[in-house]
Design a protein that fits this description.
Layout lengths: L2 H48 L6 E5 L2 E5 L1 H56 L1
Antiparallel strand pairs: 1-2
Helix pairs in contact: 1-2
């Protein structure tokens, strides 16, 4: 394969790697948001568990506080925690896949660079 073709292949793979790295960074950002939300919801759940059964619980809906049943509030928070936990697992799985692809792309780039260096070394000897 000619040096120019290898150079083009190298650029293509480098661009793919950059795009993948951006996707990994996005995944980390989304993951961080979900982690914060999970912590907040777990805190709310602990607070709800401290309340008496006859305590008044209010939910903010837009600009209005609406009275909510304690059991219903508990159930809603638990559902949110389950959803966020599932999303975090999904993001972890996606992240692992992307990191494997990233490593494979890095190896591919390294091999092309070595081939280019070998070609250049061959030309230097000639």
């Amino acid at each position: 394969m000619a040096s120019k073709e290898l150079q083009l292949e190298l650029e293509t793979k480098a661009n793919d790697l950059r795009k993948l790295q951006k996707d990994i960074a996005k995944n980390h950002e989304v993951r961080k948001k979900y982690t914060v939300q999970l912590g907040e919801n777990e805190l709310v759940l602990k607070e709800l568990e401290l309340l008496n059964d006859d305590a008044n619980v209010y939910k903010l809906i837009g600009p209005v506080l609406v009275k909510q049943d304690l059991a219903e509030a508990n159930a809603n928070v638990r559902k949110r925690i389950d959803y966020i936990s599932a999303e975090l697992k999904r993001l972890d799985s996606t992240l692992n896949d992307m990191e494997e692809k990233q490593n494979s792309k890095k190896e591919g780039i390294l091999k092309i660079q070595q081939r280019i260096q070998a070609l250049q070394a061959g030309k230097a000897k000639a």
